[in-house]
Amino acid sequence: MAYNNNSFKRFRVLSVLALLYLSFYTKTGEARRPFACDPNNKLTKSFKFCGTSVPISERVTDLIGRLTLQEKFCCIESYEWWSEALHGVSNVGPGTKFGGDFPGATSFPQVITTAASFNDSLWELIGQVVSDEARAMYNGGAAGLTYWSPNVNILRDPRWGRGQETPVKIPSWPVSMLLAMSGDSKVMQQETSSRLQHVANITLPTILITGMVLIASTSMPSFGECTFMTLVSIKVQSLLYNFRICVSKQDLEETYNVPFKGCVLEGKVASVMCSYNQVNGKPTCADPDILKNTIRGEWGLNGYIVSDCDSVSVLYDNQHYTRTPEEAAADSINAGLDLDCGQFLAVHTEEAVKRGLVTESNVNNALANTIAVQMRLGMFDGEPSTQPFGNLGYKDVCTPAHQQLALEAAHQGIVLLKNHGGILPLSNTRHKTVAVIGPNADVNVTMIGNYAGIACGYTTPLQGIGRYSRTIHQQGCADVACNDNEQFEAAEAASKQADATVLIMGLDQSIEAESRDRTGLLLPGYQQELVFRVARASRGPTVLVLMSGGPVDVSFAKKDPRIGAILWVGYPGQAGGAAIADVLFGTTNPGGKLPMTWYPESYLAKAPMTNMNMRADPARGYPGRTYRFYRGPVVFPFGHGLTFTTFDVKLVEAPARVSLPVSSAVNSTVLSSANALKLDHTNCNSVSLGLHITVKNNGTMDGAHTVLVYSTPPAGKWSAAKKLVGFKKVHVPAGTDQRIMVGLQVCQHLSVVDQFGVRRIPLGQHQLQIGEDLNHSVSFHADLRGPIKSL
Ligand SMILES: *[C@@H]1O[C@H](CO)[C@@H](O)[C@H](O)[C@H]1NC(C)=O
Ligand SMILES: *[C@@H]1O[C@H](CO)[C@@H](O)[C@H](O)[C@H]1NC(C)=O
Ligand SMILES: *[C@@H]1O[C@H](CO)[C@@H](O)[C@H](O)[C@H]1NC(C)=O
Ligand SMILES: *[C@@H]1O[C@H](CO)[C@@H](O)[C@H](O)[C@H]1NC(C)=O
Ligand SMILES: *[C@@H]1O[C@H](CO)[C@@H](O)[C@H](O)[C@H]1NC(C)=O
Ligand SMILES: *[C@@H]1O[C@H](CO)[C@@H](O)[C@H](O)[C@H]1NC(C)=O
Asked: Which of 154, 255, 350, 448 is the most exposed, having the fewest neighbouring CB atoms within 10 Å of its CB?
């Protein structure tokens, strides 16, 4: 392309607007001024792109066509794209600032804790609160409107420092939260569940939020032709940046891509983030197959693709993927990258255009994708206060209702791992004095984990327990690293005096965090010895409470009869201490379930962090990953979680046979030799099956139960491992029963992926396992009588 000075000038201006990250803040607490189009300004009023009734695509084209005029205001007020809202409005990104009228925001439990609730509607409620608070802060000039969350990478390795951020393997959760956050309630309204409709009425969804999804894993080092990078303790950043992973087509389609696809297709995210690492030989931010063909093409992203911060410079500087920085800029824009978190594109794209490495039209496309999102958010519609939700302000942040939801979420995320002889709940008449011991006993910010903000306020575990009984507090260790045992005697003495002992142990961000993976799964330092000694000294029952994102190998405590009960509380958020106390004293009946396998320490030696394979490889001693493929010993299995009552689950009604309509492309000759149908040979999208189940609470305390449904396909050239295909949580008062229905979509839930990455529906007997001990078999048949003419 012939370089023309004028087009370059326009591009430079736009690059400031959209490709660079620059911040502009009004003083915190001051109302935000219009971003661009001011209806009171005669000049901007006349612009087509300021016309709120003009379709967005026309407004975008108009704006791009006028860019020289745009210079004036675009450069004075640039927009900071990067804000975070993983489990509450966060100030991790530069786009959000607390202070003034906005001293804090509601800080919900860390994502993995909410995952343990197995409660679909909870995600929506949290999403609505976060979006209301975000819009209120935007109106007050304290935050942006584009949030780079959630993180939907799968929790592949128990050492991963960012495992705490992930909703693990349930793609519907980030989708629910995204829909609630973006205000796209259409899907919610289609739900027949009255609970969801009720939810949709409580709070009007407010902002269009951008979802951030990191393609593939972000941590690991490189070896061999297509692998490498180490997740284990990435102290050397260059290792992280160099990580090249090798993923099979089968694992990509079956596991890694699933949550990303769900967020784009169903969650309607407004953005996707590409990562630092390479996948199968290409940096994700310069791979047109991933960005252009899959995300924008096949999945239909309506929004922008943004790099992880400085990942374009990383592909040149660290990975030496291109010879020149201009090629790196061009490769990424040509691959479909629209926005750079960093300055690399702003610095090098000009020269790349000059050299003809990238066309102006590709640059315009990138700009159009970002500006369209700003327009959808109302940033070109004048005064924020005159727009929908413009009335939200500081009084809508940290409201009593929002903080109550943070407490409920913490209640629901707590998992009772052990309750030997029913020592829990404690009683405030029998346990008048409680020794509260451990480095996490009186913590506040530890409870909100990473990608958090400033909470409205905290209730620490010590304060929470203090609401029920007199407490004697001993830290036991100076911090979670617990490097010595100097304070152990004082801790033992405390437990000798008390009627019950609660040890609050575990991890914090100094042990597991972004760029900080663990090297082991045991409790750090001398923590295990502290627990052991205090449990021996304790006069009353001893309870171990674990705060952590990832699993901890506490086999010693599981076996030890002196440690009567174990609770895993994740990082339970601002109200975590109150929730822990409510569970300890039985005001709340725990109903959470582990959202991931708790592996023993011995697992680590056999599963290198760098091995991306999901499936076990017994010949090489590789144990495989997750509850699906790992068959070895566990500390606690996926789905484990006890309660203070008992539930009796019965299958009432379920189909024994399912017919799949087949396309005319398939004839009886082909069928007789096939034991599985390709998805595009059947319209199984229209086929679903319902399992009708009763859940009876035959104990003495009201409680909630989650019924998990797994399926095992008939044998074939795919994995016969069982997988979670559905679940339903139900609240059941003591002595009553509730009927529930778990609906399964045949295409989505009961298909398998062969070694070529092709999804198929196996014909024959599928085994469904309902809860712990109910089995039901359904046979799948191809229905040739009514072949579909065209699909
Ligand atoms: C929710 O809104 C719908 C539509 O306006 C209405 O029919 C329904 O009764 C409302 N539900 C509740 C629980 O308020
Ligand atoms: C959190 O705990 C630390 C250490 O005890 C204390 O200094 C700080 O004031 C607490 N912050 C809040 C908001 O309670
Ligand atoms: C309640 O149901 C469970 C599960 O079927 C069963 O083991 C238990 O004996 C029942 N308890 C009572 C009191 O009926
Ligand atoms: C059935 O389909 C196969 C593959 O498309 C084709 O080779 C074969 O001739 C067809 N047989 C009949 C009976 O139509
Ligand atoms: C899910 O969470 C919401 C909000 O806390 C709560 O009202 C509802 O009862 C929960 N559902 C179940 C089945 O526990
Ligand atoms: C249910 O099926 C699974 C998998 O086929 C099997 O391991 C289990 O023993 C069965 N349980 C019962 C109660 O039949």
From this structure: 350
How do residues 365-383 score in pLDDT, each as one tens digit? 988 998 888 888 888 888 7
Assess if residue 323 is contained within a domain. Answer: yes
Which atom in ligand 1 lies closest to the alpha carbon of residue 201? Answer: 1
Ligand 5 environment, Cβ below 6 A: 119, 121-122, 125, 408, 704, 729-731
Which residues are annotated as catalytic?
308
- Smallest CA separation from ligand 6 atom 5, residue: 767
Tell whether 651 and 753 lie within a shared domain. yes
Q: Is 379 a domain residue? A: yes
Report how far ligand 6's centroid is from the alpha carbon of 716 (Å).
19
Nearest CA to ligand 5 atom 7: 122
Amino acid at 489: E
What Rg do the C-alpha atoms of the chain give, in angstroms?
A: 27
In this structure, the answer to whether residues 297 and 429 fall within a common structural domain is no
Same domain for 447 and 518?
A: yes
CATH number at residue 280: 3.20.20.300
For strand 703-712 and strand 764-770, is the pairing parallel, antiparallel, or unpaired? antiparallel
The verdict on the CB of residue 458 being under 6 Å from ligand 2 is yes
Report the domain count for the chain: 3
The residue among 559, 586, 620 that closes a domain is: 620
668 vs 690: CA distance, rounded Å: 29
Cα distance between residue 40 and residue 158, in whole Å: 56
Q: Residue 531 — very low, low, confident or very high, per pLDDT cuts 50/70/90?
A: very high
Report which protein residue has its CA nearest ligand 6's atom 9. Answer: 773
Residue 561 lies in domain: 413-620
Instruction: Tell which one of 627, 649, 769 to mutate to probe ligand 6, the residue whose CB is within 8 A of the most ligand atoms.
Output: 769
Question: What does the pLDDT look like over 433-491, one tens digit per residue?
Answer: 999 999 999 999 999 999 999 999 999 999 999 999 999 999 999 999 999 999 999 99
CB 498 within 8 A of CB 433: yes
Q: Which ligand is nearest to the CA of 411?
A: 5
Which ligand 6 atom lies nearest to the CA of residue 774?
Answer: 13
pLDDT exceeds 70 at position 72: no
Q: What is the pLDDT of residue 46?
A: 83
Distances 2 to 15, 67, 114, 218, 359 between C-alpha atoms, Å: 20, 19, 55, 38, 9
pLDDT tens digits along 233-273: 222 233 445 566 677 888 888 888 888 888 888 877 888 88
- Ligand 4 centre to CA of 751 (Å) is 25
The Å distance, Cα 193 to ligand 1 centre, comes to: 12
Q: How far apart are CA 162 and CA 154, in angstroms?
A: 10
- Both 232 and 360 in one domain: the answer is yes
Distance 763 CA to ligand 6 centre (A): 20
Question: Could you say which ligand is closest to the alpha carbon of residue 727?
Answer: 5
**Torsions phi, psi of 482, nearest 5?**
45, 65
Give CA separation, 582 vs 96, 419, 469, in Å. 33, 16, 12
CA-nearest residue, atom 7 of ligand 4? 670
Q: Is 1 helix (H, G, I), strand (E, B) or coil?
A: coil
**Closest ligand to the CA of 733:** 5
Residues 146 and 285 in one domain: yes
Has residue 638 been placed in a domain? no
pLDDT bin (cut points 50, 70, 90) of residue 224 is very low
Could you tell me the distance, in angstroms and rounded to a whole number, from the CA of residue 276 to the centre of ligand 6? 43
Q: Which residues pair with 409 in a beta bridge?
A: none
Final residue of a structural domain among 395, 426, 452: 395
